[in-house]
What we know:
- By secondary structure, the chain is α/β, with parallel strands linked by helices.
- It folds into two domains: 7-142 and 277-333, Ribonuclease Z/Hydroxyacylglutathione hydrolase-like (Metallo-beta-lactamase, Chain A, 4-Layer Sandwich), CATH 3.60.15.10; 147-273, Rossmann fold (3-Layer(aba) Sandwich).
- The protein is 24% helix and 24% strand.
- The protein contains nine helices and 19 strands.
- It has helices spanning 55-62, 147-163, 177-184, 196-205, 223-226, 261-266, 281-291, 303-312, 326-333; strands at residues 7-8, 13-15, 20-22, 30-32, 47-51, 67-70, 76-78, 81-87, 95-101, 104-108, 130-135, 167-171, 192-194, 215-216, 230-233, 249-254, 271-273, 295-301, 316-319.
- The protein is globular and about 65 Å long.
Amino acid sequence: MEIPLLAFNEKGIYCAEADVYLDPWKPVDKAIISHGHADHSRWGHKNYITHHSNVPIIKHRLGDISVTGKAWNETFTINGVKFSLHPAGHIIGSSQIRVEFKGEVWVFTGDYKTEDDGVAVPYEPVKCHTFITECTFGLPAFKWIPQAQVFHDINSWWAQNKNDGRTSILFGYSLGKAQRLLKHLDPSIGNIYTHGAIENMTDVLRAQMDFPETIRVTRETKKEDFKGSIVLAPGSVHGSTWIRKMVPYVTASASGWMTFRGARRRRAIDKGFVLSDHCDWQGLLTSIKETGCEKVICTHGYTDIFSKFLREQGYDARTEETQYEGEMGQLESEKEKDSE
């Protein structure tokens, strides 16, 4: 039986020819990392390879690690297998990993989105024979509206809350979503406060991009300081003692899951803004078509439904189990190790 160029095993996605793993979820000797989210870049590997702009991110999150940075489209060879990193558009430093051996090309996307968010290097399609794709939002119900409209709505919501004498609390994942929100907030409306986890990560990324000025929330921050301001915080603090001194406040969450009203109700959120760092249904289909691939492997999200649809369109599509969570894990059980 022919061994595939990339195989899924108990540790992650393995390239036997190069003896290297892509985004492994258990400790390995050599790992190529697509991006800095915790489900894709885990602690414990002996050697990490990732894009230059992701190096400070994973060092911040993982500590003292052995990591090598690569440039976009830079080819590096391991045991005769050619690898290169290409923009995934998901968050800063997010990469698709191209793998080539004896004329056969596979692309592992990690997480990706096709809309240019003004923060991450925009997604670029990469030609391949086999495409490994997430399908976090692999249902026709998911159809994103242009982010310019979303941010107009967010800033209008903040301005109205300020007029009403309330604090606006906006929840978003501390790496990626928070910086995307921050980049497009209108600081002329008022002050922008940040939870410590978001402030720490944004400090790491300021060397790569200009962001509006922010104020870290500390124990010394007075209740009256929050009035009319907006606070960016991870969803894990909702309902905690951390936000009590911000009363009166209005809460909102920015997530693709806000497409469904039930998600907002379950989270007890006042307002939902549909904004995702993943592809919607059409983005997934367009990306797959642009690769020119014949085979598609669906990893996390609505894998069964999406792969079935692809097979009906003539693709050789199947699913594989991974420990990647996409935005599902960020919404349901976000955990931040950083303190205030």
